[in-house]
User: Fold this.
Amino acid sequence: MSSKFQALDSKNILLEVKNVSVSYGKKIAIKNASFSLKEKEILGFIGADGAGKSSTLHAIAGVVSFDGEIIYKNYVYYSPKEAEKIKNEISLMPQGLGLVLYDFLTIKEHFDFFRDLRGLKKAMEYETKLLKMAGLYEFQDRLAVNLSGGMRQKLSLILSLLPRPKLLILDEPTTGVDPISRAELWDIVNEMRNNGMSAIISTAYMSEASKMDRILLFDEGEIIAKGTSEELIADIKDYTYEGEMESKECFSFNKRTYCLNSLSLKKTTPTLEGVFFVNALKKSKKPIIFEIPKKNLQMPEIIVKANCLTKKFGKFIADNCINLEFKKGEILGLLGANGAGKTTLIKMLLGLYPIDKGELYLLNKRIKSYEDRIELKSKIGYVSQKFSLYKDLTIKENLDYFAKMHGLSVNETNKKIKDYSEMLGFSEYLNAFPKEVPLGINQRFSVAAALMHEPVVLFLDEPTSGVDTVARSAFWRLLRKLKENLGISILITTHYMSEAEYCDRVVVLKRGIKIVDDEVEKLHKKYPGLDFEEIFLEIYKEKNEN
Amino acid sequence: MKMSAILKKEFLVFFRNIGLVVFILYAFTLDIYIAGKGIKVTPRNVPIGYVNEADNLIVNKIISSFHKPEFKKPKMFLSEKALKEAIYNKKIMVGIVFDKEFVKNLLSKKEAKLQVLVDATAAAQAEVTLIYLQNILMKFGNNLKLPATIDIIKLFNPNSNTKWFMSLSELMSNITMLGLVLIAVVFVREKENGTWDIMLLMPVRGSLIIFSKILSQVLILMVGITISIGLIVFGAFDTPINGNLFYFYLISFLFAFAIGGIALVIASVSKSVLEVGHLTIVIMLPLIFLSGAWTPISSMSPFIQYLSYLSPLRYYIEATQDIFFRGSSFMDLLPYLGAELLMALVLFYIGYKKIGRLF
Ligand SMILES: Nc1ncnc2c1ncn2[C@@H]1O[C@H](COP(=O)(O)OP(=O)(O)OP(=O)(O)O)[C@@H](O)[C@H]1O
Ligand SMILES: [Mg+2]
Assistant:
């Protein structure tokens, strides 16, 4: 490692990564990654959970040690210590819902704090612009802990833009961010790029990835493909068919089926998502088949009925007189922008928030007192927005705890754990701790935990956020199976509008008000030729500020 | 069944937290050992004074037993008032008042009373001085009754008593601190990790969750106490026990629940483990101060003395010392046990109401 300075052949290359590897103990997170980034270029990282995207980003940002070399402009660095020198030009926003935030500081105080931390001067105009872009301008005095999941994410992002970095590194910045804000965030990044910034962004939204200048596909610690979105898509067009099917050999998701063997189905233009399925197939991975035995649970036609549910936080009305009827065996999608009041509504239904106004009936019974609530709890399953499981307990111990708390006997518990872990495909992880397994596994085992006591209704708050494509497709197949074979009702929130297609009915909230409650098919009829993301944006535009 | 599930979960979480386990082991063993061994509090040049209203040979003899190197030459004062003033001005640390009746009572084998005044600000020195004093006085008659504080430690042996006394004191302070922290943290950790909602959604009464969670930590404390008593108190220091160890466990158990009540209040207002730490320190200091662990209760101002009835630690310490050194019977311990039970009920009720609002 003699000379620290090297001439780069091409003038407009900002960053060059050469044979970079990162490992944690025995586990190799990324092996021999090599690529370059031009000035004003936006590079996208895509890949399954644990494929090595974050580790590569962390190596570049100089927050983990790595092997290999990284050249920024003309400066070569081999370690986090050497990277110190360029850190004022690089800004990293790590993955996770607002991890860099301090729960008990307000938005405004966060700006003050980060400005001081980075030794920046106050730039009123720029800061106001960022706040407005993120839609947080009106909420500057709200504590971070009281922000919705997506609002936290947006706050983290604009904080990372505060120092006006030359190179912006975003690790899944849009996880849990609504479609409208995702478009806005993209505009922010694009505008910064026009001012001379480059960016590396990892993302789980393929619609977003296809807007990047170039994409790197990560898989099991390696970069297995590079190119523009069109180039990557072209590679898989031979394997992409129209429509969905259930098969042991082929993956289906979002109205397409991916198969290596030729099928009698009609071929169609692939989407970027297909890259994951074709790659999985090439590695001879097979879709999980969920075998859920049929059961006939006795339950009334209407599972949940809510009359004019209202929740206020001080003067702020988070949910304004929401009426909701939730039928037996129905998958109901609860959609809406960040902060629209989805989680708040679910928490009222669950009894985690007291209801300020309105009536709630569960299984035809009015829920009023504490006693009613306890009974209610044994009928419902809940997976929270953060997959809240006990991180100090193994997956098996977690499940064991949930089952016992619901009064299952030791035998029943063991049987259920065995059954669910096989059905949902996580048996091999039973003795691992939640943080050691991919998010997709956590997601499935959280659902298993919520199903232990055979609830009649499941509330799932953004169960697919941050989960990779293949795992999401498996998850939706699971939900449909649960609905069909157990007849349970599922209320689910998501920011993947394409997933709304799998719901029977959707309810859309906007600023605490219900603006749509309709069957998905009917909405398609009403807005012919649009995909659901477009329908959603259309609805949100139409129902603008009454 | 559900209770055992909660207990099991809390134990697993506890043991997975290696740092905490190590700290607790330290607090129950090495820390107690160091406290017993480390601070050598033998009296050195303690300034002592007396008022002699009896003016008798026996008194002079008693006085002359206070000598170097432990004591400075005793100073005579003409009135109790003058003696008090000298203590107040830190001229002397211990003052003894022999009143007119003293010798008469002593000789007639009636109850002879001695008034001992101690500088409360030099607690450890004063404590140990009292023990010396007691031993000296013992030589002069068995029916000599002394103020309660001396009574408690009557049986101490001047050569090894400090470590017995100090290690038990330290143990009880540590139990107080750990009890507050452990119990508050089992609740606050759920808040911090975002599992609070999941906990609330269990089809179980809030009271069962609260009680089981506390019980899990109380059991951990009891194991810690056992390790400490076995390894350090009996093992390393060979402390004699004249009473029944079972009563010690009984009062420890009651005490843990009293502390648990306070911990619930801490847990209900804290949002993070760090906050628990801060609040614990703020609450623990007056608790220990009022208990007489540092300053003999009899040398506190009357107002503070009344306040000290509010410290659950007071009954715990007094009962423990009685059990170990005096060998008190159940009947003798009953007031302490009763008071501790009352404390446990009241504090637990308050804490339960407070945290119950979050359920
Ligand atoms: N405890 C609270 N105190 C004050 N405001 C709150 C509180 N909880 C939520 N809010 C506010 O209520 C609104 C609705 O929040 P909610 O979490 O229901 O949104 P959401 O629709 O789930 O959003 P996301 O998609 O980002 O998860 C937000 O503006 C949020 O800041
Ligand atoms: Mg939410």
